[in-house]
Structures are given as structure tokens and as C-alpha cells.
Design goal:
This protein is an alpha+beta fold. 17% of the residues lie in helices and 28% in strands. The chain has six helices and 21 strands. The strands form five sheets. Strands 4-3-21-20-18-5-16-17-19 form a nine-stranded mixed sheet. It has a six-stranded antiparallel barrel with strand order 7-8-9-14-13-10. The N terminus is likely disordered.
């Protein structure tokens, strides 16, 4: 039954706990940098029915794609949403992370330290330093005023500037890398898929980072349709599950959009009995949020808070390309809904044993009915 924004799947779900999705992960397996060749990442293939695994490199994904299948990618683009500024009048350093654009140049943000960002405070960005090392406040390129404090202590900030905001952001901003990445990227594009189009994400749809233009072309040449959807990924994707009972967890909200031409590609594959293969959990959440009860799609947009965990009956996707996720995260729960918790945790244990690279810049999994590829 449906309960608000949550899905329950029978009495069995009452016993499913966050701790059921824990696994040990050595810190040295957390990838800190992307590989030079995107498609040379390793690929663990998991049969979602049997739990059997195979080991490949990512470009071997071609062997598992069939003519008529539809590969669904998320074409969102990560914005350099991390801004380093100073508080007006004090010169105190403040970090601002852009989360959601509201209206009239107002953004919902995460500010550190929050105590220096009360309503009415102004934050200056892009300032030059005076000869004595103090901040020349008059040289600010971008000025933000805190106008309100909202849910979870996030700040609403109204920005003032001259020119085009996106150009200023590209000049001043840094990529908002996940908290487990310990240094900044030299090349911002490495935290961007090669098919990124629409600005709006605070985090990358990382399963897509493994694709190169050449590999995508080879996918098309094999007769696989590529459909694009958009879901702007929020930092809530890294927010830990705090409730031990999964039914008490509230998912973050993310904006999605599907155009009719792309919905038609997905519907065509389903009607022909072919597979819909999602690239990433963000594409999955988009499709499962937007589909009707029969799994078909039409042009639409909106906000999704869908929480997918074991017991969920998928309406659209048949297979999934994904990275390796954090223990006890909503992402590992989603993957477990597709392949079964025991199969997934067993595959993760093998990945640790084989020293796969984990998380955003790490290796990939392909989860499908491999016997029916």
C-alpha cells in the first residue's frame, strides 16, 4: 500500500532494518581519482536471479546489450556549486553549497559554518585582497544575502551580480565532490558524464561516468536505443539513513523531466518485449516515479521522493548499470530491491575480496537476468 511518499510492500517490510544493509569496506578501496580511460573501469556482472557474478572491464558491457534494448541515461549536468566566500564586515571564511534554485536568484544552500549566516548577513565571493592581506570587499564579483533559514538549517540566499550567473559560477565555483573524496579535481569535466546537457545537479549521476563517446557510438551501432531523461541530483543522495526502521526514513526531493520523444523510445522497447536498462539509480528513480501502473511513460516533469527498497515491484526497468554504494545507504537498498539483498551483499563481499574500486570514481556493476541476455 501507499503511505504518503513512502512505499510499503507487505508485513515482511516491518522487519527490514538499516543494519541489514551494512557491509565492511576497507577505506583504501574508496576511489579518490577517476581513471584516465573512463571505459577501462572494472565491471562486475551480477545475475539478479541466481546471484552468480562475472568479472569484466566496463567496455565489455556491449556483450550484454541486445538489439532493441533501450539504454536510459540521465543527462543532468553538475554545476560547480561549491563557493568559498567571506562574511561582509568580518572577512570570516564561509563555504556555500548551492542545492536548489528557487526564483529571482534565490537559492536553497548549505552553509558552513551556519552560525555566520543568519538572516540579513551578506556573503561576498570573488574578492581580491588588499596589500595588507585584508579583503577588498568592494571587489566582490558575487554577493549573497541570507534571507531565511529553512528545513534542516539550510539557508535561502539571494544573489546579486552583474552579467550571467552561470558564467560567474563557472569562474568562482568548485565541483561539489562527495565527502569521501579528499581533494579537488584538476579537471572539472571528470566529474561530468560525456552526455551531460542540463545544468542543475549538485552531484554527478556517477554510473554514467564510465561511458565514452566511442562506447556510446558502439552501443548505437549494435541496435540499442538510447533514451535520455533528466533528474537533477541533490546532495541528499549522500545523506545517511538515520532511522533504523526503513519505513521511518524520508527521502530527499529531486526534480525530473521526461520528454515525449524519449518516453516513446522506452515504451517501444517494452511493447516489443525488449529490456529497459537504466544507467544509474537516478535514471531508475526517474522512470519508476513517472511510469503509470503498467510501466509506460509520457512526457512529464515533477519532484520525486520515491524510496525503493526490497519488496518493491519494478514497473519499467529490467536491468541496471550502477556503481558500488555506501553501506546502509538508500542506493544499496535500491540495488537490493532489484537483485535481492543477499545477492547484492554477497557480490559486494566478492568485490571487496577482488579489490574493486568503490563509490563515485570507482568501478561498476551490471545487474540483470544474465541467462536471458
Amino acid at each position: 500500500m501507499r503511505m504518503g511518499q513512502f512505499y510499503t510492500y507487505g508485513d515482511y517490510m516491518e522487519q527490514l532494518l538499516k543494519s541489514d544493509f551494512y557491509f565492511d569496506l576497507p577505506e583504501e578501496l574508496i576511489a579518490q581519482d577517476p581513471l584516465e580511460d573512463r571505459s577501462s573501469s572494472r565491471l562486475l556482472v551480477l545475475d539478479k536471479n541466481t546471484g552468480d557474478v562475472e568479472h569484466h572491464v566496463f567496455r565489455d558491457i556491449l556483450e550484454y546489450l541486445n538489439e532493441g534494448d533501450c539504454l536510459v541515461i540521465n543527462n543532468t549536468k553538475v554545476i560547480p556549486a561549491r563557493l568559498m566566500g567571506v562574511r561582509e564586515g568580518t572577512g570570516a571564511s564561509i563555504e556555500v553549497l548551492l542545492l536548489k534554485r528557487q526564483e529571482n536568484d534565490v537559492w536553497e544552500t548549505l552553509v558552513k559554518p551556519g552560525k555566520k549566516a543568519r538572516p540579513g548577513n551578506r556573503i561576498l565571493f570573488g574578492c581580491k585582497n588588499n596589500e595588507d592581506g585584508t579583503v577588498d570587499e568592494s571587489s566582490a564579483i558575487l554577493v549573497g544575502e541570507v534571507v531565511d533559514i529553512v528545513e534542516e538549517g539550510n539557508r535561502l540566499i539571494k544573489f546579486q551580480y552583474e552579467g550571467i550567473f552561470e558564467e560567474i559560477l563557472d569562474k568562482l565555483g568548485q565541483m561539489p565532490l562527495p565527502p569521501y573524496i579528499t581533494h579537488q579535481l584538476q579537471d572539472k569535466n571528470r566529474y561530468q558524464t560525456v552526455y551531460a546537457k542540463h545544468d542543475g545537479s549538485a552531484a554527478a549521476p556517477t554510473a554514467g561516468l564510465h561511458f565514452t563517446p566511442e562506447l556510446l557510438e558502439a552501443v548505437k551501432e549494435k541496435g540499442v536505443e538510447i533514451a535520455e531523461v533528466t533528474l537533477h541530483v541533490g546532495l541528499g543522495t549522500f545523506r545517511p539513513v538515520k532511522e533504523d526502521n526503513l519505513l521511518n526514513h524520508h527521502m530527499h526531493s529531486e526534480f525530473y523531466n521526461i520528454e515525449q520523444s524519449e518516453a516513446d523510445k522506452i515504451n517501444k522497447a517494452k511493447q516489443a518485449g525488449k529490456r529497459v536498462i537504466s544507467v544509474g539509480t537516478t535514471s531508475t528513480r526517474t522512470l519508476e516515479s513517472a511510469a503509470d501502473e503498467n510501466g509506460y511513460l509520457k512526457e512529464c516533469n515533477g519532484w520525486t521522493e520515491i524510496f525503493i527498497y526490497p519488496g518493491y515491484q519494478f514497473k519499467v526497468i529490467d536491468a541496471l548499470i550502477t556503481n558500488f554504494h555506501l553501506p546502509e545507504s538508500t542506493l544499496v537498498m535500491l540495488v537490493s530491491a532489484l537483485a535481492g539483498r543477499e545477492n547484492v551483499l554477497s557480490a559486494y563481499a566478492k568485490a571487496v575480496e577482488e579489490k574493486y574500486r568503490f563509490f563515485s570514481f570507482g568501478d561498476a556493476m551490471f545487474i540483470a537476468d544474465v541467462s536471458n541476455k
